[in-house]
Amino acid sequence: MYRVWTRERVFTSILSRRKRKTPGGLVARPVLTSYYKSKQFKTRPYDPYNVITSPNETILCVDSFQSMYSQMLCGLIMREEVLRVGAVFASGLLRAIRFLQLNWEELANDIATGSLNHKVTSPSIRECMAKILKPNQELAELITNECSGENWEGIITRLWPNTKYLDVIVTGSMAQYIPTLDYYSGGLPKPCTMYASSECYFGLNLRPMSKPSEVSYTIMPNMGYFEFLPHDPSAPAFSRESPPRLLDLADLEVGKEYELVITTYSGLNRYRVGDILLVTGFYNKAPQFRFVRRKNVLLSIEADKTDESELQKAIENASLLLREFSTSVVEYTSYADTKIIPGHYVIYWELLVKDPANSPTGEVLNQCCLAMEESLNSVYRQSRVADNSIGPLEIRVVKNGTFEELMDYAISRGASINQYKVPRCVSFTPIMELLDCRVVSKHFSPSAPHWTPERRS
């Protein structure tokens, strides 16, 4: 017996971000937020295959708690109609699951009583939710039974039993979240349909059900003018006297890496996107690419992107707090810890303490964490302050000699002692284990960094 669906509900976590101003006075906000606030989104035509469980009022609210709470409430109420669950990025979906873990009791109470939590103060949200929220004791009991235990494996299919797949981006830096997504979803498919950015749509995945690690995108030549810069990390930097040679689509070779350069209909001219792509083949004459990484990006949890120079500057600013203790940072490395939600930056420090009797206290090192966060870019600070999508930065102080052991380990695996450089970001499990077993103290940022949203006029 087949069940006929009149509409395909999508439970997706969509959070609008506050606008901000650039140093030059221009208003800036993410492209998706601009779309959600546009007339095109608000008056979009009805699509029976893409009906979002979240009313517009819940999406447009810039208060992350009120927006997430009301969207989660709608998703639970319409659980039987939901065929796919998702967010823009994998990290966003996991943040929604973490939100559910923290707030399921209040959500269940709202459903049982048919009254909206007093923490949701937005008049527009309260008005629209009054039309949706009705007492449902049976659903409240189901949510309580599923969420009250310690086992959250497969929670997505337990709460949304008709879910067919997860609608999230899991390529690039988001691939680190795949094991956690599999745990919460029971291994649901994670199709990757397209490759796009704020600047332009680039390509389509013609095999959307392929594994995330095997995804290749076919470039759509009609979306812009695409050129490619051969990527060779060992090559010397370009200069005005020796400008880079850009290649057209037809000049690319399978197995080689390129940096994407675009000229768009909206006015970008030979813009370096910063994405490194690997050519995997051709579809007819259009090249197919696998996304390799962002150029120069060391750390990323969600929309944030921190490169080596920015991390170095943050370390230098934080080190100023150590001067009065005659202490300096000898070496450092980092990694993005996504094992807990929300993820956070972890910085390993090896310190040189000249006067052990006057070594920096734990409170000082906590302030070093905050000083680093204050030095990072606005996107990072907004994620920390407004979106709560990144946790407090952590500094782990390691024993003296740890980075010498790290070098010895690299040399034992074939690295040249003359060319060895301390990696500024690590992810290889044996290296992580080496660093963690040498940690002597852990410190966290005691408060959120400064970030001011653009005030409404």
TrEMBL record:
Q: Which residues form the GH3 middle domain?
A: 217-294
A cellular component term (GO) from this record? cytoplasm
Q: What InterPro entries does the annotation carry?
A: GH3 (IPR004993), GH3_C (IPR055378), GH3_M (IPR055377)
Q: Which Gene Ontology MF annotations are present? A: acid-amino acid ligase activity
User: Record keywords: Ligase included?
Assistant: yes
Keywords (alphabetical) are:
Ligase
- Where the record annotates domain GH3 C-terminal, the positions are 310-428
Q: Name one Pfam family in it.
A: GH3_M
UniProt key word Ribosomal protein: no
> To which protein family does this belong?
Belongs to the IAA-amido conjugating enzyme family.
Name recorded for this polypeptide: INDOLE-3-ACETIC ACID-AMIDO SYNTHETASE GH3.2-RELATED
